[in-house]
């Protein structure tokens, strides 16, 4: 059962998410623990006529770099990855954590230095994607560590992962096309709107979206997906929000985050746990104190918090926001080495108003 669903997921990534065409240069990037599905993806790329390149990452090697590498080594950008990011056609990324707490004792400053050094590649990938030159998708392969983080047995977690990707269905791509059509209706409604207000027990926030574009995230960039998102006007965010779930960075959970915004900027921030990491993220660069993303989660097949942002930000009935880097295709102008998502539950006594009209109440669209 698991192998059949794994093969479906591989083909979904190649044929639906990135639509690999004959002759295209396709990078397959994965943790070594994801080797079974990397083999399936490699074969699917060959069947589609693509030219695959394989890149393998390893948690232990990354920890060695963070603990023992010099400042120069942390700042170094692998020229092979840079060449690939500049010239390839497709990027398929598979993460498969062995230990979700592997970087717990690594200093926040070291992790931020590495993230800042690699931001050149992230910027290039996002800019090329916005121009339609580079198609990409990221996913997670089920591991024991992921199951433990989600408080599930491994078998339950496999069911959860493949179910969230619609790989239990006879035709997973058809299910994603249905979700895409629903989300496109909301995106079309939001086109040309100017102002969004969010009210609820965890949030009292306003932002502008004039001249910004909402994106229909329907499994083409993330697998699974299920969200619509944009980049708020940078200086327009005002109010406060208390995020409902821990935000994970480098294997460390920052819980009880509350942010206050004035003219777009985070002017006050607190957390119940790992507040030092929150401050380190905000202090990374000037753009880290502004929102690069505002999104509404629509995947009601994801019903619980798992500790993995790939799934958690899509939970139906939630919104999420990311400090830092915005996606250029939304019209966002915010640049940063950080893109850090945080989730707020909107399923109780909460609403979203668009240009003064009710758009969303208690986790459901009303338009």
Characterise this structure.
With 367 residues, this protein is an alpha+beta fold. It folds into 2 domains: 2-168, Thermophilic metalloprotease (M29) (Thermophilic metalloprotease-like, 3-Layer(aba) Sandwich); 176-365, no CATH class. It is built from 11 helices and 20 strands. The chain has helices spanning 2-17, 35-48, 59-68, 71-75, 79-87, 108-130, 144-149, 154-164, 172-190, 275-282, 309-312; strands at 25-31, 51-57, 90-95, 135-140, 195-200, 203-208, 215-217, 222-223, 227-230, 238-242, 247-249, 252-254, 258-262, 265-270, 291-297, 318-324, 339-345, 351-354, 357-361, 364-365. Strands 14-13-10-6-5-18-19-20 form an 8-stranded antiparallel β-sheet, with helices on one face. Strands 2-1-3-4-8 form a 5-stranded parallel β-sheet, with helices on both faces. Strands 7-9-15-16-17 form a 5-stranded antiparallel β-sheet, covered by helices on one side. The radius of gyration is 20 Å and the shape is globular. The two termini are 39 Å apart. The model has no long low-confidence stretch (mean pLDDT 93).
SSE order and pairing:
Elements: H1 2-17, E1 25-31, H2 35-48, E2 51-57, H3 59-68, H4 71-75, H5 79-87, E3 90-95, H6 108-130, E4 135-140, H7 144-149, H8 154-164, H9 172-190, E5 195-200, E6 203-208, E7 215-217, E8 222-223, E9 227-230, E10 238-242, E11 247-249, E12 252-254, E13 258-262, E14 265-270, H10 275-282, E15 291-297, H11 309-312, E16 318-324, E17 339-345, E18 351-354, E19 357-361, E20 364-365
Helix pairs in contact: 1-2, 5-6
Number of strands: 20
Lateral arrangement of strands in the main beta sheet: 14-13-10-6-5-18-19-20
- Helices, by number, come to 11
What composes the largest sheet? 8 strands, antiparallel
Straight-line distance between termini? 39 Å
How many domains in all? 2
The class by helix and strand makeup works out as: alpha+beta
Mean pLDDT figure: 93
Q: What percent strand?
A: 25-35%
Helix content: 25-40%
Mind telling me the C-alpha Rg? 20 Å
Low-confidence stretches: none
Broad shape: globular
């Amino acid at each position: 059962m698991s192998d059949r669903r794994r093969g479906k997921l591989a083909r979904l990534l190649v044929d639906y998410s990135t639509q690999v065409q004959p002759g295209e240069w396709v990078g397959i990037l994965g943790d070594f623990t994801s080797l079974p599905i990397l083999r399936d993806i490699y074969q699917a790329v060959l069947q589609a006529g693509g030219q695959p390149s394989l890149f393998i990452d390893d948690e232990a090697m990354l920890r060695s770099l963070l603990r023992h590498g010099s400042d120069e080594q942390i700042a170094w950008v692998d020229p092979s990855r840079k060449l690939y990011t500049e010239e390839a056609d497709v990027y398929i990324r598979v993460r498969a954590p062995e230990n979700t707490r592997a970087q717990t004792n690594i200093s926040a400053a070291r992790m931020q230095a590495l993230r800042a050094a690699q931001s050149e590649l992230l910027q290039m990938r996002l800019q090329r994607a916005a121009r339609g030159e580079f198609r990409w998708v990221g996913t997670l392969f089920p591991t024991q560590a992921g199951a433990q983080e989600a408080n599930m047995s491994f078998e339950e977690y496999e069911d959860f992962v493949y179910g969230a990707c619609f790989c239990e269905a006879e035709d997973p791509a058809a299910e994603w096309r249905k979700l895409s059509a629903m989300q496109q209706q909301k995106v079309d409604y939001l086109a040309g709107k100017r102002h969004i207000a969010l009210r609820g027990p965890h949030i009292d926030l306003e932002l502008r979206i004039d001249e910004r574009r909402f994106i229909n995230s329907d499994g083409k960039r993330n697998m699974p997906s299920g969200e619509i998102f944009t980049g708020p006007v940078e200086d327009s965010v005002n109010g406060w929000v208390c995020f409902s779930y821990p935000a994970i960075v480098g294997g460390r959970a920052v819980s009880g985050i509350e942010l206050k915004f004035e003219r777009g900027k985070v002017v006050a921030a607190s957390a119940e746990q790992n507040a030092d990491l929150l401050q380190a993220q905000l202090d990374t660069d000037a753009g880290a104190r502004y929102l690069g993303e505002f999104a509404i989660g629509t995947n009601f097949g994801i019903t619980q918090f798992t500790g993995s942002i790939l799934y958690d930000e899509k939970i139906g009935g939630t919104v999420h926001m990311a400090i830092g880097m915005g996606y250029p295709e939304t019209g966002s102008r915010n640049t940063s080495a950080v893109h850090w998502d945080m989730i707020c539950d909107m399923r109780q006594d909460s609403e979203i108003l668009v240009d003064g009209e009710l758009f969303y109440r208690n986790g459901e669209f009303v338009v």
